[in-house]
Amino acid sequence: MKEMDWLFPKNSFKMNKKVELLAPAGNLEKLKMAILYGADAVYLGGKKFGLRSYGGNFSIQEMQAGVEFAHSRGKKVYVTVNIFAHNDDLDDLPDYLRSLEQLTVDGILISDPGIFAIARQTIPNVPLHISTQANSTNWAAVNAWASMGAQRVVLARELSLKETKAIRNKTDVELEMFVHGAMCISYSGRCVMSNYMTGRDSNRGACAQACRWKYSLVEEKRPGEYYPIEEDSRGSYIFNSKDMCLLPYLDSVIESGVNSLKIEGRMKSVYYVAGVVKAYREAIDTYYQKPNLWHTLQEKWRSDLGKISHRKYTTGFLFGTPGADSHVYDTSAYTQTADFVGVVLDYNSRTGFATIEQRNNMKTGQQIEVFQPNMPSYYQQIGKMIDEDGEIIETAPHPQQIIKMQMEHPVEPYSILRRDII
């Protein structure tokens, strides 16, 4: 190879496969929900070496169960090993990598060049993906990683659609990009606010989300005098970004040539995972199978995403650098239009009763939506409920209480019961 030839590859990449939908899995229940509601692959973290120390995460035994569940359904599992490692982080790394290889995971996400080099040497047959934390913002960086053996590069969130297309035109490696979820005020998540204010290292998995706190301005020689930023006298959430939502522009994103569409949220609820995955699953399938319905279904998908806990939505960097309207200045609270009240564990077609695990207080007479992995959703009133002692009850107030509920139509296991917020 001539010197620097790797910088200028002849692009032979062709989008001959349907784009992958990649979902977060903070624990085994979320993994199952993501796959059942339509994800092609999930990404998860172990108990160490990942950037979500407080996200539940998987033991090796749980990871094995997750891989078996996914592979039995033809789906993939990627594992995050994407901390920026210090010397003492490396001692147990080779053994951990070999354990992931034995589990037959489908890929490992890495951001640290040292970890990448150790992984290449220790588990040369496992596909390596470059995490968004590596800040890949140009085609030369993407090709550099590819030349070292990376199979996929997760693009930085700070790229526009135009830039993404330009990278695709100059690269053969697989490309992955975020399409939905929380945005970080810091460059591709490379934050030091948490370290400075709490001593928790955001680049080693312990972020305190200091960017979501309330701030006011203090002048150096006037301690104790707090000057509001904007008009809220209580302070302002000046670092509090809106959440990304690219679903309305998914057709353009797919046509840019990326291979995988990634949803953020390993620390979010099973309800969040199921709801977001299904909306994006429907949108992707519609793009490929029924493009004439693409614009017709936009309002439904927006409504579905509104029922899930979220901050106001933004397109992030898709059309250029975000402006002031990409942040929320008056609150760091989430909003949603429906409450998650239960999940279906089983359904008896003979009696018409479903076994439900309660997730929020519910009572007879309330109107609920039955949100299902594969079958259409439907609304019904809560009718007859029976507790574990066989007693008829009018309310289910206890967290994760197991009850039986009469259903108006057949229902799938893992279906979600939700109640509109009035």
TrEMBL record:
The record's annotation in Pfam families points to: Peptidase_U32 (PF01136), Peptidase_U32_C (PF16325)
Q: Which InterPro entries match?
A: Peptidase_U32, Peptidase_U32_C, RNA/ubiquinone_mod_enzymes
Q: Gene3D superfamilies, alphabetically?
A: Translation factors
Source taxon at top rank: Bacteria
Question: What is an example of a GO molecular function annotated in this UniProt entry?
Answer: peptidase activity
Segments forming domain Peptidase family U32 C-terminal: 337-418
One biological process term from GO is:
proteolysis
**Which keywords label this protein?**
Hydrolase, Protease
Give the UniProt family note: Belongs to the peptidase U32 family.
The protein here is known as Putative protease
- What is the organism of origin for this protein? Pectinatus cerevisiiphilus
